[in-house]
Amino acid sequence: MITLDTSALVALLSKRDAHHERLTALLRQERPPFLVPEPVLAELAYLVETRVGPYAMVPFLADAAGGYWKLTPVAQHLKRLSELVLRYADLPLGLVDAGVAAVAEANGGRVLTLDGHFEVLAREGRLVVVR
User: Fold this and answer.
1) What is the dihedral sign for C-alpha 75, 76, 77, 82?
2) Burial of residue 31 (number of CB atoms within 10 Å: 0-12, 13-18, 19+)
3) H or E element, residue 16
4) How far is CA 8 from CA 13, 24, 44, 75, 80, in A?
5) pTM for this structure?
6) Which CATH class name applies to 2-130?
7) Backbone dihedral region for residue 125 (phi beyond 0: left; psi -120 to 50: alpha; all else: beta)
8) Hey, where are the domains in the chain?
9) 33, 2 contact by CB (below 8 A)
10) What's the rounded mean pLDDT across residues 113-127?
């Protein structure tokens, strides 16, 4: 399974994004559902609604309702989130990215992201950044 970071989702939802076509093609080669940690949803909505447009979240929500995106809770990973935030405070790694990392670690370790700091986390050996 692949866990998606906000940066990848923004690119996927914006056809004008420089990474849109490449990430779309990459996901077409994978099998859904794709995991979206719940904290990503709020960050995604803010970024997409302010940068792409107020209705850009509608297709995402429809796809989530259809099972393409699987909104995944992070509550069971709170200890790991705390560990990650403290360990990587110099990145900085906030709650959302720590949630992405923790959910990915629990589900095969694959993360689709455009954020370079996930490469630092991948050095621990628990994550693989999908490019």
Assistant:
1) positive
2) exposed
3) none
4) 9, 10, 10, 23, 22
5) 0.94
6) alpha beta
7) left
8) 2-130
9) no
10) 95
